[in-house]
Amino acid sequence: MENHLRQMQDLLEAGTSFVCVTLVEIKGSTPRAQGGRMLVTASGLYSGTVGGGLVEAKALEFAQEFLDETDISAETKFVQWNLNRDIGMSCGGSVKLFFERFHTNPWEIVIFGAGHVAQALIPLLLTLDCKLTCFDTRSEWLGKLPESPKLNKLCVESLAENVEQTAEKAFVLIMTHGHRTDFYVARSFLEQRKQPFLGVIGSRAKAATLKKELKKEGLKEKQIKQVICPLGFSLGGNHPQEIAISITAQLLYERDKLFGKTHPRNPVPK
Known about the structure:
By secondary structure, this protein is an alpha/beta fold. It is 35% helix and 24% strand. It folds into 2 domains: 101 residues, no CATH class; 152 residues, NAD(P)-binding Rossmann-like Domain (Rossmann fold).
């Protein structure tokens, strides 16, 4: 069990998509005692066993098909197979298996700028189940960010020219070293694509200026409304750590709203 948990942790830290399969119940004559576990990646069996033979082959196939599914609301599945009818074995028993997948359809967040707020924000986001990319023109600032398989740090000559590399489903945060750079990156996104979340850091005064400048560039009001500025919920102070918490809260709220998730424990922000 300890080795199984350690291997799961290795896959989680590496950001690898995988399914954990557990044999939770057996009836009659079966090839394995309940409690057997195995880990399955896109490449096949990673470790463990749920009985070998035809049971394991079917479970392996089912796990890999589960990995390919795009429905993010279904992260677990129970199945019960009759060994004779469903698997073609001569045994007269049945098995029930629990499939739980991890790191499938990852939540992607792309950050333009590795400055003070990003330095506080990115370590916080790395504690969540997400995949991060950070662009900056300054290698020294990127170098200050933590090393993680979940974080891709890219030093580029022009931030605006890297808009096309951003996945359409990614949440985008624009927090570069200056207003003009923020403007050019935001304009590029509005002209080229529509992200599920496009946020720009700044004050209310900056937000008004940014939207006025975008309008002067010929962008329509419907396009400009896509920009969330100021970025983050209205809580805390101006310390980078508190701003990072307010931004993270807003991202979680927008993610859950997008995916139709609700949490009855507390009222949602208005």
